[in-house]
């Protein structure tokens, strides 16, 4: 029954994502609504202990992948601004929101500060989802600023949440020492374990299918556990680990991207569905007024006051500051921290879980729908840029990639000097391999029969996965044993590559015969193609 439920939820989540893409509603808001619907229709789940474990693991993956996806080369120009917002900005937002809750809404002071801390950080998953799905190419390096801020500010909110939980429980704590300990050990743990990771993969071969992703997962869990045991901030260590690893080049990196992209999506669905499932519709209605008031206050006062105040020394443009103020989406971290508060066992007078629930709903609804509109209204859209450059997991950048080909006795290049070869495309002969030796190609270097030449050029990655289709030819496949010229495919489709079972790459010609075990890649122009099995 539970497996069937998970199946139904994931299928509905896929449908919700499609609805989001067409309607403009944030997908995470629809996942939240999905959980509420299951709860309202009688699926009873109120195990906050299990929920906390799932929420913590989800947050670990989201924060790590947030760091992994951060393109530091793009982000370092705005690092001071984003780090200021991720640290002092979270602190200021928590304090301003807490003071509002105490003096205006008449909530107990420490409980007000706890609530402000829980909802103080912006959500990486929500921010990146809207930036990418709506293709918000922002001026003045605003996208990387928002990416780094939202990816790195959860640890500050977590530290503040733990501090006020300790104060509410009656423990005598030194706030400066706790913050310093959490930050210093977290930074050291992240950098140290990231350095160890790179050294290990430079030494050991982990090319087996799936093994590399498993090793990264092991390092991720180990980093969080070891840093937390040492008294540091495990979430901060994970973000630093992600940045350190994500900005190094290594084999299998693309496989890791696909693996964690899917895993991160699943856990985002789990987080927001879980929040909806744990909710009580009657308590949601009861928390609506206070949650709405806090959400509006954060939108109109706390976030803008923090952004304009902290960014004043950086002389940023007013329209940029206004847009940054609108990008204060609350989400996964607030959910996880609210569940932690419920499980702490501390008696508080407010229903913090359902208040946070309502704040997240209005934040996603208002910020999520307003951001694309405000981008154009504030003249912050840059048609010459691509937001995908901000993220490491998209290859919309001028990376040099290499392909290998052979010089045969019938090749027009055989026995010619490189300087005499006409290459009309933007590629270069990067290396020549002859008789097991490497040759540096120069203009007067001759190409010989059986040479292996390495060509370099600008890499391309189909980020949507819609323009290229890979098919494996089985024994029963109708293309097995046929020549390429005899295969019936669409007029806008072309077989561009064949990989044999021996891992040899063949550029297909009309008389190339496809065999069982071959993998072929088809390039297309039409909206979709099918594997004619």
Question: What does this protein structure show overall?
Answer:
This protein is of the alpha+beta class. The protein has 3 domains: 378 residues, Na+/H+ antiporter like fold (Up-down Bundle), CATH 1.20.1530; 59 residues, Alpha-Beta Plaits, CATH 3.30.70.1450; 57 residues, Alpha-Beta Plaits. Helix content is 56%, strand content 8%. It is built from 17 helices and 8 strands. A hairpin with a 5-residue loop joins β6 and β7. α5 runs parallel beside α9. The two termini are 33 Å apart. One of its GO terms (biological process) is potassium ion transport.
In short, what is this structure?
InterPro entries: Cation/H_exchanger_TM, Na+/solute_symporter_sf, RCK_C, RCK_C_sf. The chain has 533 residues and is of the alpha+beta class.
Ordered list of secondary-structure elements with their pairings:
Layout: H1 2-23, H2 27-40, H3 48-68, H4 72-75, H5 79-103, H6 109-118, H7 124-133, H8 142-152, H9 154-168, H10 175-203, H11 211-229, H12 234-246, H13 253-278, H14 281-311, H15 318-326, H16 332-343, H17 352-377, E1 400-406, E2 427-434, E3 437-439, E4 452-458, E5 468-472, E6 493-499, E7 505-506, E8 519-524
Helix pairs in contact: 1-2, 2-13, 3-12, 3-13, 3-16, 5-6, 5-8, 5-9, 5-14, 6-9, 7-8, 7-17, 9-10, 10-11, 10-12, 11-12, 14-15, 14-17, 16-17
Keywords: Antiport, Cell membrane, Ion transport, Membrane, Transmembrane, Transmembrane helix, Transport
Domain RCK C-terminal: 388-471, 472-533
GO molecular function: antiporter activity; monoatomic cation transmembrane transporter activity
